[in-house]
């Protein structure tokens, strides 16, 4: 966002992440800002934005244009729900270019002395809620459609292991090139260039950036993962200390769909009263703190291109490491032979079982990130997560997941 605006002649004062509204407003005053912008990557930040807008109104600031964006926000939330809270011009930017268009229009109006009292102010009527949202009182304890006679794969070991020294090239083989080149690095195919040629052109840059990351020790992949005896107990997944299933180590609760097929992640494990022991796997992967530190230094030094390349590579290498380690798990757990033939297929879950990260619709509770960190002993790879970190992992380029072998375990939305 910052880069696009700066490149288009705007002066941007980037205050960084987790900045309070007082600091934002103080900077806006000092800087005589034409507008303020806030970005929300996690769903929790949508609540913070609402509170910030309410605070602005309390302070009598009702005319400063505000732009909001980021993965966690939707146009409807901003234009219907938040415009009711804040009477001043308030906009949603789907991407940085929409943000730029809005700012251009605001500045144009300001210069011309023309004032459109409607621009960014009128709340879009909220769509009526469909009856589907109401939870029926008698949800089943398990989905009737999830089988319980699928073969159980016995894991190669029980407990946790730490893995270090994974070659960067092995991870890079699992990079999502579309996400890296287009979403992170913001490249687009040239006229007449097809997707294959576009990717082939950018691979040279990728190799260069990987070489720099290697030479400067920016990417330090580490994994902690483990297998545990597990049972489904209604909406809960119970993790046991050992196969005798007497001592509960931890319990995760998941939402259940309120309509057929009534899916819930806990259904993908043998029920708690079954004779046969079932197993769950968890992993936490990280690219380490250096890549974030380096990206911040480059940003502070106004080296925006380098910043974008470094940060984007860190982000997508973290994703690639999760994908790569999931593949390694399927190999040692004994069902990698069911993998689809292509990498693109793996990105579309063409493999046996599923990988769920907390914060996604089937398992929304981000606080469970901390339970996973504790279960696996994530401090051994330098990863922390607690209420103080807002249930986010530190370092930034870290992600966790629950991995299931059940063939019906695929992404779904629990509503
Ligand atoms: C890459 C990615 C990661 C990477 C890197 C994350 C990072 N720090 O950069 C990794 C693998 C590390 C990761 C981890 C996790 N992630 Co993640 N991740 C993503 C993903 C796929 C893409 C994000 C991204 O980099 N996009 C590219 C950038 C350039 O886009 P952007 O930030 O959205 O910004 C653009 C627009 O939104 C807009 N914009 C942004 N801000 C603003 C502001 C203004 C004013 C305007 C006008 C426009 C604007 O302009 C930008 C450029 O076009 C998103 C899903 C998605 N499709 O967005 C999930 C997502 C952000 N992740 C999510 C989650 C849950 C997680 C984890 C918690 C999962 C887990 N349990 O491990 C962890 C948390 C990490 C941590 N440290 O705690 C959720 C968050 C939702 C929630 N519940 O809060 C998302 C939304 C996925 C989902 N559920 O749909 N993640």
What's this entry about, in short?
This protein has 2 domains: about 1-110, Rossmann fold, CATH 3.40.50; about 160-405, Vitamin B12-dependent methionine synthase, activation domain (Cobalamin-dependent Methionine Synthase, domain 1), CATH 3.10.196.10. Helices cover about 35% and strands about 15% of the residues.
**Uncertain stretches of 5 or more adjacent residues:** 130-134
Q: Enter the CATH topology name of the largest domain.
A: Cobalamin-dependent Methionine Synthase, domain 1
Q: Which structural class should the secondary elements be placed in?
A: alpha+beta
- Supply the CATH architecture of the largest domain: Roll
Rg from alpha-carbon coordinates: 24 Å
Number of extended strands: 10
Number of domains: 2
SSE topology:
Elements: H1 2-7, H2 21-31, E1 36-39, H3 44-58, E2 66-69, H4 75-85, E3 90-93, H5 96-112, E4 159-164, H6 168-172, H7 177-184, H8 195-215, E5 222-233, E6 236-240, E7 248-253, E8 278-286, H9 290-300, H10 304-333, H11 343-347, E9 354-356, H12 368-376, E10 398-404
Parallel strand pairs: 1-2, 2-3
Antiparallel strand pairs: 4-5, 5-6, 5-8, 6-7, 8-10, 9-10
Bound molecules: cobalamin (B12).
Describe the structure.
By secondary structure, the protein is α+β, with helices and mostly antiparallel strands. It folds into two domains: 2-112, 3-Layer(aba) Sandwich (Rossmann fold), CATH 3.40.50; 159-404, Cobalamin-dependent Methionine Synthase, domain 1. It has helices at 2-7, 21-31, 44-58, 75-85, 96-112, 168-172, 177-184, 195-215, 290-300, 304-333, 343-347, 368-376; strands at 36-39, 66-69, 90-93, 159-164, 222-233, 236-240, 248-253, 278-286, 354-356, 398-404. β2 (66-69), α4 and β3 (90-93) form a beta-alpha-beta unit. The longest helix is centred in the C-terminal third of the chain and has 30 residues, at 304-333. The chain starts with a helix and ends in an 11-residue tail after the last strand. Residues 1, 37, 39, 41-43, 67-72, 93, 95-96, 99, 183-184, 315, 318-319, 357-360, 366, 369, 392-393, 396-400 line the site of cobalamin (B12).
């Amino acid at each position: 966002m910052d880069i696009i605006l700066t490149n288009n002649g705007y002066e941007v004062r980037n205050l960084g992440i987790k900045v309070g509204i007082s600091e934002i407003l103080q900077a806006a005053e000092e800087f005589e800002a034409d507008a303020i912008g806030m970005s929300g990557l996690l769903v929790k930040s949508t609540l913070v934005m609402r509170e910030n807008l309410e605070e602005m109104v309390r302070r009598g600031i009702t005319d400063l244009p505000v732009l909001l964006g980021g993965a966690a926000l939707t146009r409807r939330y901003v234009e219907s729900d938040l415009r009711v809270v804040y009477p001043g011009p308030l906009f949603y930017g789907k991407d940085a270019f929409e943000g730029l268009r809005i700012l251009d229009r605001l500045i144009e109006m300001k210069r011309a002395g023309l004032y459109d009292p409607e621009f960014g102010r009128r709340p879009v009527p909220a769509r009526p809620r469909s009856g589907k949202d109401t939870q029926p009182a008698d949800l089943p304890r398990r989905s009737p459609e999830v089988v319980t006679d699928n073969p159980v794969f016995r894991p190669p070991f029980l407990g946790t292991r730490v893995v270090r020294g994974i070659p960067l090239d092995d991870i890079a083989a699992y990079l999502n090139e579309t996400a890296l080149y287009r979403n992170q690095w913001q490249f687009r195919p040239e006229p007449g260039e097809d997707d294959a040629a576009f990717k082939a052109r950018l691979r040279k840059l990728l190799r260069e950036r990987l070489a720099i990351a290697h030479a400067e020790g920016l990417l330090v992949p580490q994994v902690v993962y483990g297998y545990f005896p597990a049972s489904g107990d209604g909406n809960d997944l119970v993790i046991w200390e050992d196969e005798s299933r007497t001592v509960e180590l931890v319990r995760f609760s998941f939402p259940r769909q309120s309509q057929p097929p009534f899916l819930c992640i806990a259904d993908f494990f043998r029920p708690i009263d079954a004779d046969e022991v079932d197993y769950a796997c968890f992993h936490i992967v990280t690219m380490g703190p250096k890549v974030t530190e380096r990206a911040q230094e480059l940003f502070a030094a106004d080296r925006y291109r380098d910043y974008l390349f470094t940060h984007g590579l860190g982000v997508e290498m973290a994703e690639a490491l999760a994908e790569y380690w999931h593949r390694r798990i399927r190999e040692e757990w004994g069902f990698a032979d069911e993998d689809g033939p292509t990498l693109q297929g793996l990105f579309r879950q063409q493999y046996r079982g599923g990988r769920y990260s907390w914060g996604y619709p089937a398992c929304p509770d981000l606080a469970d990130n901390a339970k996973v960190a504790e279960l696996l002993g994530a401090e051994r790879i330098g990863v922390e997560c607690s209420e103080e970190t807002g249930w986010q992992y530190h370092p930034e380029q870290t992600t966790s997941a629950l991995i299931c072998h059940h063939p019906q375990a695929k992404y779904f939305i629990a509503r």
